[in-house]
Amino acid sequence: MSYQQPTHVLVTGSTGFIGAHVVDNLLARGISVRGATRSAKKGEQMKAARPQYAPKLDFVVVEDFTNIGVFDAAMEGIDAVIHVASPFFYDTTNNEQELILPAINGVKSILSASAKPGSKVRRIVLTSSFASVVDIDSNPPAGFTYTGTHWNPLTYETAIDPKSTSIVAYRGSKKFAELAAWDFVKTEKPQFDLVALCPPMVFGPVVHPVPNIDQLNESNAVLWSVAAGVDPLPGIRVPAWIDARDLAEAHVQALLRPEAGGKRFIPASPEPFSYEYAADIMKESFDWAKGSVTSNYKAGEKPHASYGVDGETVARELGVKYHTFKETVVDFVKQVKDTLA
Ligand SMILES: NC(=O)c1ccc[n+]([C@@H]2O[C@H](COP(=O)([O-])OP(=O)(O)OC[C@H]3O[C@@H](n4cnc5c(N)ncnc54)[C@H](OP(=O)(O)O)[C@@H]3O)[C@@H](O)[C@H]2O)c1
């Protein structure tokens, strides 16, 4: 059967950092978008900022996406789904309730709505994460490269253990949510296929509503903290990244290209990054940054993370051309400095 190009796409997480870039990429191609959001206000702000797309953009409010059935009413006329939404924050008090179960149940909820009798959905693109790929505790041999065939070895028991950090729980949330999606397709045999994207750190300018600097998404917040001189930088990071605009392109190409169905990709720039490199770019590009960037940039990085990440497959099979790290840092830092700082 020939693959029907999508005309009306439901995007979850549409008012978040990555989701809003996906919305814009689809709209720019003339594809209609229905954004799912928890906030009617953010949906209205997104619409108001895109008057030229008014006839092709609407929003549905889904306050708690973890209840099966909540997406059913949003599926009218929808022929493809990009499921971006997932809890992504580290200040949790209950890892299983706040991160892991919402991520898994959100996937089950959108997939079961898409599989209902009469559904026209033919493909679902899922935003998973490099967190579901990388074995953070291993010390891979020289020359080792992570590909879409790798899975992090975390067990569910460790992920939900109250003694585990929220970073470990987030890794579990992405792994077990993605597994739930692949299991659903295998056991339910729905009329759609699945593509999973596993990006590492995502940076870049924002196109979603961000009322103030404290409400930047997690990954951009760390990049901004380099500019702002936060010392030490929070958390453990992976040494791979992608620009949000390139990641949006990967999502949309994963939707449009028939041959992508059933595959798992790592969209990642081939250029390694570090916060030290980011600090250098900031100092070189902005006079004001010379005195403010952090000098303790290594604090947030994991030592010895000397593995490769296969972003080439996405470049080759999905036709994505990656921004340079310098372009991404400059575009993001300039935007934040001019509009939020
Ligand atoms: N940024 C990165 O470095 C990175 C890297 C790898 C993977 N990812 C994945 O990319 C996706 C988007 O992340 P982001 O960076 O764009 O972060 P974000 O701006 O915080 O976006 C998260 C989105 O998920 C939605 N969401 C979270 N919990 C939800 C819940 N319980 N019910 C309904 N919606 C919920 C949020 O909805 P509202 O807008 O309504 O608040 C928001 O739109 C996530 O799946 C994340 O795991 C991100």
TrEMBL record:
Molecular function terms from GO: oxidoreductase activity, acting on the CH-OH group of donors, NAD or NADP as acceptor
Keywords: Oxidoreductase
NAD-dependent epimerase/dehydratase domain: residues covered: 9-263
Any single Pfam family the record assigns to this protein: Epimerase
Gene3D superfamilies per record: NAD(P)-binding Rossmann-like Domain
InterPro entries in the record: Epimerase_deHydtase, NAD(P)-bd_dom_sf, NAD(P)_dehydrat-like
PANTHER family according to UniProt: 3-BETA HYDROXYSTEROID DEHYDROGENASE_ISOMERASE FAMILY PROTEIN (AFU_ORTHOLOGUE AFUA_3G02250) (PTHR10366:SF579), NAD DEPENDENT EPIMERASE/DEHYDRATASE (PTHR10366)
Family: Belongs to the NAD(P)-dependent epimerase/dehydratase family. Dihydroflavonol-4-reductase subfamily.
Name of this chain's protein: NAD-dependent epimerase/dehydratase domain-containing protein
Protein source organism: Penicillium cataractarum
